[in-house]
Amino acid sequence: FCGKEFDISLFKELLRQAKDCGMETVSFSGGDIFCRSDALELIECTLSMGMNPNIPTKYPLSKAQIKQLSGMGLSSIQISIDALNPDIIDNLIAFRPGYGNEILQTIDNLGDAGIRVRTNSVLTPYNINDAINLARYLARLTHVFKCNFTCYGRSLYCHDDSLFCSPEDIIKFEDDFNK
């Protein structure tokens, strides 16, 4: 597609073909779906075809967006969150000041709307010491059904050796997590 976003009519045709081939799940990847102005329409098309959308996001969703997602029948979503402390989140993501509080509120609001949440957290030296606090917090939320913690790894697109956790930090995290 040469960097251009496909339009909704092409998406609907691809969905129809995938459904005809027996596919049941549509994974949205290659960028955050909620950065698109037609994100909710793409999700609604997927759900209306009787297919399951797999949606990972770092995007803080508004109550109105969450209400719309719930109304169209979305049952679960993945939220990427790397710490519990909003200041650490803001420093790691740096979308804008206040992002950390917004993404934490998004997780709470999703639960209020009946949407189940799975989380993905990437551990670096900047957040590994707060990761246990995040795990404890998420474990108390009944709508969070799966949490994934992964150590930072080498990337083809953007890489920084300073983001690797030390073996000692990993061992400490694993010990604390297992407790």
Structure notes:
The protein is an alpha/beta fold and 179 residues long. It has helices at residues 8-20, 39-48, 63-71, 86-93, 99-112, 131-139, 167-178; strands at 25-27, 52-54, 56-57, 76-80, 116-123, 144-151. It has a 4-stranded parallel β-sheet, with helices on one face. A two-stranded parallel sheet has the order 1-2. Helix 2 links the parallel strand 1 and strand 2 (52-54). The N and C termini lie far apart (48 Å).
Q: SSE order, as H and E?
A: HEHEEHEHHEHEH
Strand count, sense and closure of the main sheet?
4 strands, parallel
Radius of gyration: 18 Å
Summarize model confidence as the mean pLDDT.
93
Low-confidence stretches: none
- Span of the ends, CA to CA: 48 Å
Strands across the major sheet, in which order?
3-4-5-6
Strand % is 15-25%
**Helical amount among residues, as a percent range?**
40-55%
From the structure above, extract its key features.
alpha/beta; two-stranded parallel sheet; 6 strands; 42% helix; 16% strand
Task: Please outline the helices and strands.
Elements: H1 8-20, E1 25-27, H2 39-48, E2 52-54, E3 56-57, H3 63-71, E4 76-80, H4 86-93, H5 99-112, E5 116-123, H6 131-139, E6 144-151, H7 167-178
Parallel strand pairs: 1-2, 3-4, 4-5, 5-6
Helix pairs in contact: 1-2, 4-5
